[in-house]
DNA sequence: CCAACTGTAACTGGTAATATTACAGTAACC
DNA sequence: GGTTACTGTAATATTACCAGTTACAGTTGG
């Protein structure tokens, strides 16, 4: 899976956890363990999709603008990592004489298309709010 | 997805399609569009898992030794690409003070563990025999 | 012995992913 | 109005991974 998916999810959970729902790219980067520039890039995508608002300038940063229980991992997957499990490497070749070799790409494609749908429906069942609950549950033990 | 998974599936479908169920690495490689050495490596794994038998020496090659309708993509996934969708990149750090940053790895891990299971159950419903049927269906149109 | 294979390991080159740097633009605050 | 603290974005290392390739030892049939 795409690391940008991870960064997006982690950032949103962090924002959901903060009392004021706000944080700067530097603060998020320290928590995620990556570079602030990457965080800005990822959260820029999330802004364009309406999941966070940003404020530039001093005292600025990112703020969650959707209820954490209304945002699922499927939303984030579609935004940040659609097609991530479909391989970029292709076997066979449609020009080929052999029936197997010439049609494998198409069949393989339909298989992974189904796999994507399967994965999305799984992610559909997990919200940012639930992620936060799970984290709290970890903490207690 | 791992390209070795693709090569494995393609090779097995090809073997299932051949009347005598047998082919050399060179023949398979030409059909898959890759190098014979890669095919030998992949089919070596399949041999170790009991899906094909090999014969070295002149006139040798690979032969399917399981009924195509008994072999599912899930079997191949577990052999060739287990953990393929779980990211190798980790956010957060268990040593961290913050509750979110310190527990994110564990929670993210459980999420992807579930995703793997979901994917496997999808692959469980697709056999090599069905793949071959789908290819034949493509050919007709 | 020779030819045709498999089984492996090692090396190469290209490409994708991550980290880093840099700087223009913007807003708060004194 | 200047300074400080941010975002937005592009460009540039740097690293890691992956497919392709080569090479050669081992095996088998003729």
TrEMBL record, chains A, B:
* Sample GO molecular function, one term: DNA-binding transcription factor activity
- Gene3D superfamilies in the record: Winged helix-like DNA-binding domain superfamily/Winged helix DNA-binding domain
One Pfam match: Rrf2
Where does it sit, as one GO cellular component term?
Answer: cytosol
Task: Supply the name of the protein.
Answer: Rrf2 family transcriptional regulator
Native organism: Cohnella ginsengisoli
